[in-house]
Automatic annotation (TrEMBL):
Location in the cell: Cell outer membrane
Protein species of origin: Bradyrhizobium sediminis
UniProt KW keywords: Cell outer membrane, Membrane, Signal
Name this polypeptide is given: OmpA family protein
Cleavable signal peptide: 1-28
Pfam families: OmpA (PF00691)
Region (Disordered): 200-225
InterPro entries linked to this entry: Bact_OuterMem_StrucFunc, OMP_bac, OmpA-like, OmpA-like_sf
Source organism, top-level taxon: Bacteria
Cellular component, GO annotation: cell outer membrane
Residues covered by the OmpA-like domain: 82-202
Main subcellular localisation: membrane
Length: 225
């Protein structure tokens, strides 16, 4: 009997310990995709400003879908292959399904993007936010959805994180320029691309105050209220 009581007591202690550990907060993990320093390196060094006609690209994408050009996703030629030759980064920003609503856990990533774009070494540049989707469903819906999502990312960066609207433009390509053509339906094709496309009016702004010249830590860009 005493042996059984000891066993039951040991099991009780073990369960209590497990319950206690379950109640502890999970260890914070650094978001994937590299540090802000790495992102700055990826976006810097634009040699020549590209000749991008965003209105024309949007028109061509819509016309290609309407004409049902190349129904097989991984055989479609990219709409704007020159974008991949520009300094750029790809970030995972999650949205509600079939909607242009950023999920709360992706605001940390948007804050890191804001850190990068507002770093003193980046203030002379203008950026293009490119929305993509995986292949599936209607192509015209995906094209519209990708544009709405790119616009929402810009709005969050401008309104929440106070990045200058003069430095951001958007383009939605839907599934017309897959990030992974070998796997058209992969979630990787829903990631967002940010490319450096030219100089910004910020380059002529007054010099940055010394205190602001200290490199920001990853994910430290906080919304201004």
């Amino acid at each position: 009997m005493r042996s059984g009581s000891k066993n039951r007591g040991g099991i009780g202690l073990l369960l209590a310990a497990l319950i206690g550990f379950a109640g502890l907060p999970a260890l914070a993990q650094a978001p994937a995709g590299g540090t802000s320093v790495e992102w700055i390196k990826k976006l810097g060094g634009l040699a020549t400003e590209p000749e991008l006609d965003l209105a024309e690209l949007k028109k061509r994408a819509a016309e290609r879908i309407k004409a049902r050009v190349e129904p097989i996703p991984n055989k479609r030629p990219p709409m704007a292959p020159e974008l991949n030759k520009l300094p750029h980064l790809v970030a995972e920003i999650l949205f509600d399904e079939d909607a242009a609503v950023v999920r709360p856990d992706s605001y940390r990533t948007l804050g890191r993007i804001a850190d990068t774009l507002t770093h003193p070494s980046m203030l002379g540049y203008k950026f293009l936010i490119v929305g993509h989707t995986a292949s599936g469903g209607r192509r015209d819906f995906n094209l519209t959805l990708s544009q709405r999502r790119a616009d929402v990312i810009r709005d969050v960066l401008v309104n929440t994180f106070k990045v200058s609207s003069k430095r951001l433009v958007t383009l939605g390509l839907g599934e017309e320029q897959l990030l992974d053509r070998a796997k058209p339906g992969s979630p990787v094709n829903q990631q967002t691309q940010i490319a450096t496309i030219g100089s910004s009016i910020e380059a002529n702004s007054p010099p940055v105050a010394p205190a602001a010249a200290v490199p920001a830590k990853a994910g430290t860009h906080k919304p201004k209220r």
